[in-house]
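User: Can you fold this complex?
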Amino acid sequence: MSIQPARVEEKLFQNRYLVDAGKPHIVIEPHSTPSKNLLAMTTLCPAGCYAENSAGQVEITPDGCLECGTCRILCEPSGDIVWNYPRGGYGVLFKFG
Amino acid sequence: MIEEKFDAIVIGAGMAGNAAAYTMASRGLKVLQLERGEYPGSKNVQGGILYADMLEKIIPNFREEAPLERHLVEQRFWMMTDRSHTGLQYRSDDFNEESPNRYTIIRSQFDRWFNKEAQAKGTIVIAETTVTQLVSDAYGKVIGVATDRRGGTIFADVVVIAEGVNGLLGSRAGLRETPKADHVALAVKEMHFLPRETIDARFNLHGDEGVVIEAAGTISKGMTGMGFIYTNKESISVGMGCLVSDFAGTTETPYGLLEAFKKHPSVAPLLEGSEVKEYAAHLIPEGGYKTIPELFGDGWVVVGDAAQLNNAIHREGSNLAMTSGRFAGEAIFQLKTRREPMTKQNLALYKKLLDESFVMKDLKKYKDMPALLHTQAKNYFLAYPKLMSNAMENFLRVDGTPKIDKEKASIRAFVKERNWTGLFGDAVRLARAWR
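Assistant: Here's the predicted assembly.
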């Protein structure tokens, strides 16, 4: 059985967020080539926040972040990213959880 | 700026934090609880199942008020291939009892209620506030916390760290390590809404009866992982989780696996026509006993998921969290009553209470299971489900082949896949780790 590429954007559309504009809570350190784990985030991030740009670097748009911490587990110890919780009250607002 | 000093500060309003706050406040302690979400519960995610016994020990009459979904009367374990499932099913009318044992819950709503109960006992709760740092004195004793609100340190005799599986504070303060990728699973979940009668009919339920389906097999593509389906009153929670280290070695997406699980011929008819209202993701501590960090120190204790207190084999987490929060609260109350300081030596009482309870006994029992499942994932999650499915189909399909030949063919398939030594080894390894 082949898996249809799932559209994560449609899933995130169901959720409520309060985005802290201009203050991303996850930041990728500048790099020329991404580490294996950082590159893995482009498929592993459950909110699809990570993407590879045309120059081969990994970028992040954390607006749809579900705050699971998977990227922190994989990429923070190596220094690939800096991870903080959003400011109090900001970020994903689960209604059901 | 908060000038007063508290008996205890609780960081986080999940199961462990709420249990700790409730336990301490109801015994007269001055408790401050800090939560980064819009309201207590708004950042919390679980499948989720509530185990009544552990909540009864905190709030005996919780059934009168708590937002419960359905009590569980049936459990289905599914071993899945792409087109089939081999099931083990248990249903009993004995579960339709006066005080049921397990319920499905919707975590954000449940936690909001649980936290209100803690507030009713006197806990001061400040939401929309992220704790940014544990504050220590010159000797390394934790004496309070700093937050992202204006004002300085808030002081307390002891800090209960209930910050969850992805807690930053404990690891930043050097109290424990950040969990490793092979010690946590990433789970994604959707809330599928359907009319109550439709859920009742599809799952053969009456009144508030509910069903749990837990599924493993080819759905996790050879990774250590599981799918789950829980019936709520007017919704179905559907999720899928795999070990983070396994995910990192593939190009599978978590939402791709969830979509495939939802489209599985055994699952799709259960969800047909539903309206999805939320999509969530969360980490689950899976490392078990061997990955439990230091649980207490000078001026602090750590509880719940932040302490890796999760029984992955039995899918129990919130009850361990709740119990650890209660024990932390009881230990702190005892020390306070005896006017003893919140030193590491004295707070060892919390660990002692945990050690004597089911929490540590259960985690110890399965201490070797995580490593076994993680290293043997391809066998347990791919090979055996396929072999079982083939054997079942072979057993059921009537095609003129003599039964003796069918039986031999099924056994040969097992031996061909794993050989006798492998089969024997798998059985022994599983039995040993289970013991």
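Chain A has one domain: 8-92. The beta strands of chain A are 16-18, 26-28, 50-52, 58-60, 81-83, 91-93.
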